[in-house]
Design a protein that fits this description.
Number of strands: 5
Number of domains: 1
Shape: globular
Helix content: 25-40%
Strand content: 25-35%
Pfam family, one: GPW_gp25
Number of helices: 2
Strand order of the largest sheet: 3-4-5
CATH topology: Nuclear Transport Factor 2, Chain: A
CATH class: Alpha Beta
Protein name: GPW/gp25 family protein
Organism: Streptomyces spongiae
């Protein structure tokens, strides 16, 4: 009888676990971490991937309007498809911006496991 292989990935943010080793996360949590990194990374922030990210936090102080929210949702959807399309299938996406906070409500399926996740990602403007 073969033992099932459990996939683990490096946790985000990078840190040491209680044994002093690199902390790991299960695949589902790793995918969640990748989505969070994509959402709150501004384009141009990564040296070797200058077009990576959504730049949501750049718009925290922008005047709130239906047009801005629609544009944000399209931008986020496109970024998720481009950078994480091989890992997830997006089922629903809703972006809310209020009181200097951006919240992304995201329902998606992790392709490797078929697990459905409903996550809320929240970014705040730096004070």
């Amino acid at each position: 009888m073969t033992k099932p292989v459990t996939r683990t990935d490096i946790a985000f943010p990078f840190r040491a676990d209680r044994r002093g080793r690199t902390a790991h996360a299960g695949h589902g949590e790793h995918v969640h971490d990748l989505v969070e990194q994509l959402l709150f990374t501004s384009p141009g922030e990564r040296v070797m991937r200058p077009d990576f990210g959504c730049g949501l936090l750049d718009l925290v102080f922008a005047p709130n309007s239906p047009e801005l929210i629609s544009t944000l949702e399209l931008s986020v959807q496109a970024s998720l498809q481009r950078w994480l399309g091989d890992l997830i299938d997006v089922e629903a996406l809703d972006v809310v911006s209020e009181d200097h906070v951006v919240r992304v409500y995201l329902s998606y399926v992790v392709r490797a496991t078929g697990a459905r996740r409903d996550d809320v990602f929240e970014g705040r403007a730096a004070a």
